[in-house]
UniProtKB/TrEMBL annotation:
It comes from Angiostrongylus costaricensis (Nematode worm). It holds the Pfam family 7tm_1. Keywords: Membrane, Transmembrane, Transmembrane helix. InterPro entries: Aex-2 (IPR039952), GPCR_Rhodpsn (IPR000276), GPCR_Rhodpsn_7TM (IPR017452). It is found in: Membrane. CDD domains: 7tm_classA_rhodopsin-like. Its main location: membrane. PROSITE patterns: G_PROTEIN_RECEP_F1_2. This is G_PROTEIN_RECEP_F1_2 domain-containing protein. Residues 6-264 form the G-protein coupled receptors family 1 profile domain. Signal peptide: none annotated. PANTHER family: G-PROTEIN COUPLED RECEPTORS FAMILY 1 PROFILE DOMAIN-CONTAINING PROTEIN (PTHR21643:SF3), G-PROTEIN COUPLED RECEPTORS FAMILY 1 PROFILE DOMAIN-CONTAINING PROTEIN-RELATED (PTHR21643). The keyword DNA repair does not apply.
Length: 315
């Protein structure tokens, strides 16, 4: 519930800040947070309920949950990549930034992310490349597909999960070194816009580092499980160890979209201040009293100032 609230608040801040500043970065944050919201508000609660209650283990319900789970992961990962690319263009080619990453072009990139994600995932579902197992509602790869189509799950993992996060981490590390060099050289460090962009890099690096730590290990483990070893050949101790590791990595994967909005709202100053102003302006029963009191204190201070002026005039 708290994760959903924070995701909604980040979406509210992204829309408000984009209208105010026109920074395309907020569009990619909005896109990424919508992907996380799909996971926190729909996929994860339903996965928990399906695992807990047998009567909810319906094939159609599980198919919808898995479909939107893939969609949320794909949109969030690709949006994180575009967020890093946006900052890479600004710091690496600042003179071409306004032309390369205009508002319209950023909006088209966001639509392209949704189009690619929904198109690929819908293709896998419509042509039965993946299906839902009737026993435990798990997602399975069809064994009757042609050899080329059997790799669609690996393609999804690599293109929408592993590569976006890995490339984002590489770009974030590069941007950190680049901005440190620019600061030491003193180029562009006096402008407020440059300082604001540098501060935003802290948030981007934190989000990218957290996503890398929470999402990459489980995906890499899945690829290793498919290609490097066979489950049936493992010993009992090996299977038990792999189960423990898998559950820990699944837990990290589950809390990834929960921590992401917290990082955005607590680390990135514009979002933190916008949320703070929003919470302060929520009407409370005794707030008019404080406003009224504050107004009278302000009038009293002016009255005291007038008294002091009159005393000085008399002397």
């Amino acid at each position: 519930m708290a994760a959903t609230v924070f995701n909604v608040m980040v979406i509210f801040c992204a829309v408000k800040l984009f209208k105010r500043s026109g920074d395309t970065m907020h569009l990619f944050i909005l896109n990424m947070t919508v992907g996380d919201l799909i996971l926190t508000v729909f996929c994860h609660p339903n996965e928990l309920l399906i695992r807990k209650h047998d009567f909810l283990q319906q094939i159609h319900l599980c198919a919808v949950v898995h479909y939107f789970n893939w969609t949320g992961l794909a949109v969030s990962g690709l949006s994180l990549t575009m967020l890093n690319i946006d900052k890479l263009i600004y710091f690496r080619w600042p003179l071409n930034y306004d032309r390369s990453m205009s508002k319209r072009r950023a909006a088209l990139f966001c639509l392209l992310i949704w189009g690619l994600s929904l198109g690929f995932i819908s293709y896998c579902w419509l042509f039965n490349i993946v299906y839902i197992h009737s026993f435990d509602c798990s997602l399975q790869i069809s064994l009757f597909m042609s050899p080329g189509k059997k790799f669609y799950y690996e393609i999804f993992l690599i293109l929408f999960c592993v590569l976006p996060v890995t490339s984002s981490l590489i770009v974030s590390i590069y941007l950190f070194n680049l901005t440190r060099q620019k600061r030491n050289a003193g180029s562009g460090g006096d402008t407020s816009a440059f300082k604001s962009k540098v501060k935003s890099l802290v948030f981007i690096f934190a989000t990218t580092a957290w996503t890398s730590c929470s999402l990459l290990p489980y995906r890499i483990m899945n690829l290793a499980r498919i290609h490097l070893f066979t489950w049936s050949e493992l010993s009992c101790e090996g299977k038990q160890l792999m189960n423990w590791i898998a559950w820990i990595l699944i837990y990290l994967l589950t809390i990834n979209p929960i921590i992401n909005p917290l990082i955005t709202s607590l680390i990135y100053a514009p979002y933190r201040m916008t949320i703070k102003k929003f919470l302060v302006n929520i009407p409370v029963g005794n707030r008019p009293f404080y406003n009224y009191q504050g107004e009278h204190l302000h009038l009293d201070s002016r009255y005291m100032g007038m008294q002091c002026w009159m005393v000085r005039k008399c002397f």
